[in-house]
From TrEMBL:
Keywords: Repeat
Superkingdom of source: Eukaryota
HEAT repeats: 115-154
Organism: Ceuthmochares aereus
Pfam family, one: HEAT
GO molecular function: protein phosphatase regulator activity
Record-linked Gene3D superfamilies: Leucine-rich Repeat Variant (1.25.10.10)
PROSITE patterns membership: HEAT_REPEAT
Name of the protein: PP4R1 phosphatase
InterPro entries per record: ARM-like, ARM-type_fold, HEAT, HEAT_type_2, PP2A_Regulatory_Subunit_A
Gene Ontology cellular component list: cytoplasm
Length: 270
């Protein structure tokens, strides 16, 4: 019954955590018994079972419970098979979604050598716009996962393709992640390549694309600033933030004292 397999998958992460904490007693139990189940259920015929397997996989990766060798030899190959050009449409959409989500949890070397080539292929998938849209929506995360050199060499050409896609939703997704892509590139690439590209999005024929581009205008401009002098930086969740200066910190630390003094002064006056 699919419901039984779904319930089983939901129990895998807590069991894996228990085995990790009791590793001396169960040194190979996870690799021998649980890991094969997780990998097998990624290709289950039932959609709910696959979804439960994908969620379990992401939790295991996030908790660091899967060994690097298992990631490269067991997880990545099955995802590459599922996202192959001749794969079933539903499986392909799910696979590219998992690839994008797990990229930030893997080593840069693993992402660049095993997943990046397939991601670049999927950005140009002419059969399924859903696949291209997932790639566009997660483009900034992939850039951040592989770093500046791979971004400028392999990803920027694909980003240009997506920014001129015939489907407006693709161009809108690109506009929304423009800051994250720009932040990963060199100042010269921002100026010579990304700036003209951004102007094309701000001048897009679709108002939804233009609106998304205008909302990203300030964050995009901020990537040209010197972080050490402007105090701008990118948080781990990809949002733009401002690091307070030492003067502001000192000013804020004195604020409660000033308020107390003012309150006591007012009390004495009355």
């Amino acid at each position: 019954e699919p419901t039984v397999r779904t319930e089983l998958m939901e129990q895998i992460p807590p069991i894996a955590i228990f085995l990790q904490e009791s590793r001396p007693k169960f040194p190979t139990a996870f690799v021998e018994y649980l890991m094969p189940i997780v990998v097998r259920y990624l290709t289950d015929v039932n959609n709910q079972v696959r979804k439960a397997g994908q969620e379990a996989l992401l939790i295991l990766l996030e908790q660091g419970l899967i060994a690097q060798s298992d990631i490269e030899n067991k997880v990545c190959p099955i995802l590459l098979d599922l996202s192959a050009p001749d794969s079933d449409d539903e499986y392909k959409v799910e696979a590219v979604n998992i690839i994008c989500k797990m990229a930030s949890m893997l080593s840069r070397t693993t992402v660049e050598h095993m997943l990046l080539p397939r991601f670049c292929e999927l950005c140009s998938d002419g059969k399924l716009f859903q696949v291209r849209k997932i790639c566009a929506a997660n483009f900034g995360d992939i850039c951040n996962a592989v770093g500046q050199e791979a971004t400028e060499r392999l990803l920027i050409p694909k980003f240009f393709e997506l920014c001129s896609d015939s489907v407006w939703g693709m161009r809108k997704a690109c506009a929304e992640c423009f800051m994250a892509v720009s932040y990963t590139t060199s100042p010269e690439v921002r100026r010579s390549k990304l700036s003209p590209l951004f102007i094309s999005l701000i001048s897009d024929t679709c108002r939804w694309v233009r609106q998304a581009a205008f909302q990203s205008l300030g964050p995009f401009i901020s990537t040209f600033a010197n972080p050490s002098s402007a105090g701008l930086y990118i948080r781990e969740d990809g949002t733009l933030s401002i690091r307070p200066s030492a003067q502001d910190v000192n000013s804020n630390s004195c604020q409660p004292c000033n308020s107390t003094t003012l309150m006591s002064s007012n009390t004495n006056t009355t």
